[in-house]
Amino acid sequence: MGNQLKFIQGNEVCVEAALYAGLDFYAGYPITPSTEVAEHMAKRLPQIGGKFLQMEDEIASVCAIVGASLTGHKVMTATSGPGFSLMQEGLGYAIMAEIPCVIVNVQRGGPSTGLPTGPGQGDVLQARWGVHGDHSIIALTASTHQDVFEMTVHAFNMAEMFRTPVILLFDEVIGHMREKLIIPEEGEIQVVDRLRTSVKAGVDYHPYLPREDGRLPMSDFGSEHRYNVTGLFHDMWGFPTGNPGVVHELLRHLNDKIKNNAETITRYKEYYLEDARTVLISYGCSARSALHVVENRRARGERLGLLELQSLWPFPYGLVEEKCAMARQIVVVEMNMGQITRAVKRAVPEPERVVLANRIDGVFITPTDIKNILRLFQGKGV
Amino acid sequence: MAKAKLKEHLINREWCKGCGICVHFCPKNVLELDAQEKVFAARPEDCICCRLCEIRCPDLAIEILTEKQEASENGKSA
Amino acid sequence: MAVKDYIRERFFPHLWCPGCGHGIVLNSLLRAVEQLGMSKNEIVMVSGIGCSSRISGYVDFHTLHTLHGRALAFATGVKMSKPELNVIVPMGDGDALAIGGNHFIHAARRNIAMTALVMNNRIYGMTGGQYSPLSGYGCQATTSPFGNIDYSFDIAELAKAAGATYVARTTTYHAKQMTEMIRDAVLHDGFSVVEILTQCPTYYGRRNRLGDAAEMMDWYKSHTTPIGSKAKEENPSLIERGVFVQRDKPEYCTEYDKVIEKARGGQA
Questions:
Q1: Is residue B75 part of a domain?
Q2: Do C27 and B63 touch (CB under 8 A)?
Q3: CB atoms C2 and B63 under 8 Å
Q4: How many CA atoms lie within 13 A of A173 on its CB side?
Q5: What is the ipTM score, two decimals?
Q6: What is the pLDDT of residues A43-91, one digit of tens each?
Q7: Class of domain C2-263
Q8: Which of A168, A340, C53, C98 is the most exposed place for a label (fewest CB within 10 A)?
């Protein structure tokens, strides 16, 4: 074990995990509460011969990582709140041009500059719909440092697997909290490498023609295949087209490649769900308090359980429906005004069973907060 | 170096948009636009192979072929 | 002609209007690349949005057609991650200096070895003729129906002040000079900027009664002069052409290699 055991901030965990996953290029712009990601990258990347760039803003940061991904590198940027808003344009480009990359959003209270040092989970729907136009997206989250590590590696894997940007939605509590982390041994977590084309030089290579298994092998800029990359609707060579058939196909492809692989993408944890009559659903820092409540009540014989979501988008509708089948009450614990609650209501029959336990004042939601809300729902008064 | 001798004005009529830049700047008044607004060499015998038309053509539609230099596109359709 | 070895012929004739100067820029650029004798696999062209940006679709290099104003940011990622590539970034004046102005000055400040070609036609052509930050005071555009009150940037001065280490200006009339400048800019080990005055007869020319494409090029001939010429002294309104800056300064990717060396305790 030795130096594999760490006691570090969540933001640093994210960096270590990214390096584990093979990242060697990062571009970013300082913003609270994600800045430590950049600081740690600036130190760690040159040590392994990678590149760290501090760009002039978040727009430039996301654009720079897309450029670097095209030369064959695993890339990432990290930001918070307003910076995530600025990145939407580049994020949309990466979706359209199918460029693997990871975008970390260490959420703070919003809208606007909001609460720079206060936690929030208000960007969940922005992660889903911040980009204009119909599209699909992968967004992952975590509640412990060990999970931050795993989900960060998973994010890189999904980005490579589906040639798409992946969002890591952390929050201020997770980003700044220090707790134990055991860095997995090499090979302990599977790492998906860039799939490169086997098409030989001189043979027509189609950067946007999916193989039978749906994956699209890439070719690094600088190698023998020269092709075009654009944010416009494009044909299988990457050249702009307005052909209705091609446009339709591409839009379907961009959405279906995520939707049809939801099972591969989905990650969750469950606690005491077998006989739970009250199911808490939570994610990120809120799930820590939710788990505390569940364990506390279990000790007193109450049939509470927790479903912790680690992938928020694509939303695991089937999973939520299945896990809540026996529940009399479903309590979604999140630090916003019900962004995942809405999805849960759509997932389950009798959506009147679904209630929200939240806190939106920039203060971490505690087990006591959740207990008080539960008492209210159960008609016991506070 | 011997002076280049004109072999041909290779004009790609498909690409020419008839903007008239080559006609305007030809120092020997060799070029004209035809009825379809495409350039043609009206007085090729006056051409001094200065290539000002070739390097200023926005449509890459003119190439001056000289005796010593064969078209690079030999055998290919332009 | 050999320059055809560098284009994607199937997309010709191109989409630019008759007489558009952007085609002359493409023509000169291809000749510069031919002179450089580089392999097409070594060249990456990164462009933004607008008439100018469509140039990337026509050249047979690695081509990245990006977002409005962001070409230099994407290009920085390409260059930094694979410094052996030659990165050429054609941009329009609005693309480079309005929406992309911040990226422009910061790329210059870093002195990262890329070539910015600013195709300055003083108008937003793709959207139908709105004034740009280079249109000039008093000009007519669809968004300045009563005359423009915005003053222009001087691209060369801006690039110089921001730290670019090769700065030049020419016009589509001076096509041979343009080829030489693009060639030298690509060879330059640092951030290089070539401003090219390029006519938009369709929107800028027509609305400002400047005549057809050839007449606009005549204007470039009569209203420009070599840097430091006597003509400029006599007539300060003339626009100077030539190389404004050409100097050595440590290049960004090379500097980062030193960072890597330090981070590894002296072992490269």
A1: no
A2: no
A3: no
A4: 21
A5: 0.97
A6: 999 999 999 999 999 999 999 999 999 999 999 999 999 999 999 999 9
A7: alpha beta
A8: C98
